[in-house]
Amino acid sequence: MQHVLRLLETRDSVQVAELAETFSVSEVTVRSDLSTMAGQGLVARIRGGVRALRDGPEVGFDLRLRLEVEPKRAIARAAAAMVDDGEAVALDASTTAYYLALELRSMRELVVVTNGLLVATALADAPGITVLVTGGVLRLSAMSLVGDLGTDVLRSTRINKGFLGARGLSLERGLMDLNPDEVRIKQEMADACEQVYGIIDGTKWHRSALLPFVQVEELAGLVTDLGAPADQVAAWRAEGLDVVVADPGPHEAVPARPRDLRRPPVPDRTVGR
Known about the structure:
- By secondary structure, the protein is of the alpha/beta class.
- Helices cover about 35% and strands about 25% of the residues.
- The N and C termini lie far apart (about 45 Å).
- It folds into two domains: about 1-55, Orthogonal Bundle (Arc Repressor Mutant, subunit A), CATH 1.10.10; about 70-245, Rossmann fold.
- Helix 2 crosses helix 3, helix 5 (about 70-80) packs across helix 6 and helix 8 (about 150-155) packs parallel to helix 9 (about 180-190).
């Protein structure tokens, strides 16, 4: 099931026959697992396989949030340790940035600049944090804001540290992503920051993507997990980059899923209020 979710990050669909061959199991077994995934709201069934869900603002983000949970939380803890009270930090709309937002909730006099609505929601009621949302056009699949309104805000802002996720990375091209609008806002976010850190789980080290948004020389460092290939980590360090490899440690309970911004809040029906 995890394999299917990873494939659907970069593909429209996955076929039963392909999965049966990959895992050396019967197509009946594969269909049963895919039906279970569909019943959990992770994928949609199509003839001969499944496809990624595309019909709501939360689904794309929620699906990615279920991948590599413990490594992402370990990365978030390590990145949060780099943030000091009183700083201004930028977080993009990545799922790792969402977990980082959860780790920052106890900070004091912190300003967080983000283009991620669910990242902002995770910090909305944190008493010591001021959240600045960049504004722009809503991208439903990522619940992110992109466009000129966001870039205008960032061009007039100075931020101490930025933590940005990516779909892929390489020493030749730096950090990369797929969507041109997301790439543009990430570039503006990076330009506004004194220090930029990539928050990259181990699965991203084997990937490339369409568009680079931060070059190697513009990075202060990377925060990753034990899944990162040791030879590539060593190569990045040889270029003078600080690469922090976080250990997930003992398994912990997964935090609550982001609130669904499509649904109105449940009214308080307590007697006497």
